[in-house]
Write a structure and sequence with these properties.
The protein has a domain at 55-238. The strands form 2 sheets. Strands 2-1-3-4-5-6 form a 6-stranded antiparallel beta sheet. A two-stranded parallel sheet has the order 7-8. 39% of the residues lie in helices and 22% in strands. With 264 residues, it is α+β, with helices and mostly antiparallel strands.
Length: 264
């Protein structure tokens, strides 16, 4: 019996069969490529962290110590916990809500120590995120590098936060002002001091999101940063030799000269 390809039954049957076949194929591909996709995500995270450190050509596994900020202390991550840290970095909602065991990355090079912290926030149209590298210097905490990305900010406007030009402007900015308050921000109308960066013209809402992201994300690490700053100052003082005071001139004791009368 000839099949009526114009009948509703044939069309429905054909559609169902094709959906099942395509769905099964996609499920197979997703499963078979899962490990490769995870590896690509992991590599992207490591590359972003190294860019923040300013060491894009270096190997993450060779120069970076992974840690978690636990009760205000840097605790190196055990091998078994590495995957969990990177999974947390990929879950921006969970990272935003986290208050303890926060991811933190350390690199020591040529006598200096830098830390990279993850930062997450909201832009105009969606999530914004990245990594910021910090170093103790000049009695303050200084940004030495930053990497930012976004889910859907406006091209040519808010999306400019992902460009090297904008990110370079943050380098050398101090976190805290003379009163000890967090002061780094993208400033509408142009930077006016050593804590500010020029805001993006036409990207005010995204810049506001960046400001909130930096303030809220770094605030979770503030106790650790302050303690590290104090320790660095203490170490510098310990390494600085005290000024040698000139030795006091010794005054010889006066000799008692007894006058002797010689008998003739």
């Amino acid at each position: 019996m000839a099949i009526n390809k114009n009948s509703n039954l044939y069309i429905i049957t054909y559609t169902v069969v094709m959906v099942v076949i395509v769905g099964a194929l996609l499920a197979f591909l997703a499963t078979s490529l899962k490990d490769k996709q995870a590896a690509n995500v992991l590599n992207e995270q490591k590359v972003s962290i190294m860019k923040a450190f300013g060491e894009a050509d270096a190997s993450f596994d060779e120069v970076v110590t992974m840690g978690r900020l636990t009760a205000g202390e840097f605790v190196a991550v055990e091998e078994a916990d590495v995957q969990a840290v990177f999974e947390l970095l990929g879950n921006r909602k969970a990272l935003t809500e986290a208050q303890d065991k926060l991811p933190i990355f350390k690199m020591e090079k040529e006598g200096t120590t830098k830390f990279v912290l993850p930062i997450v926030g909201k832009g105009l149209w969606g999530d914004i995120w990245g990594y910021v590298a910090l170093q103790q210097a000049e009695g303050n905490v200084v940004i030495t590098g930053i990497v930012m990305d976004h889910a859907g900010e406006t091209p040519g406007l808010g999306a400019e936060i992902a460009t090297e030009k904008v990110q370079k402007a943050f380098e050398g900015k101090k976190l805290y002002n003379a009163e000890g308050k967090f002061a780094v921000r993208m400033q509408k109308g142009g930077a006016q001091n050593e804590y500010q960066v020029d805001a993006i013209t036409g990207g005010t809402k995204t810049c506001d999101g960046v400001n909130a992201m930096l303030a809220e994300s770094i605030a979770k690490y503030e106790g650790f940063l302050r303690a590290t700053e104090a320790q660095v100052e203490k170490d510098v003082e310990a390494e600085t030799p005290a000024e040698e005071k000139p030795a006091a001139e010794e005054t010889p004791a006066e000799e008692n000269v007894e006058s002797k009368t010689k008998e003739e």
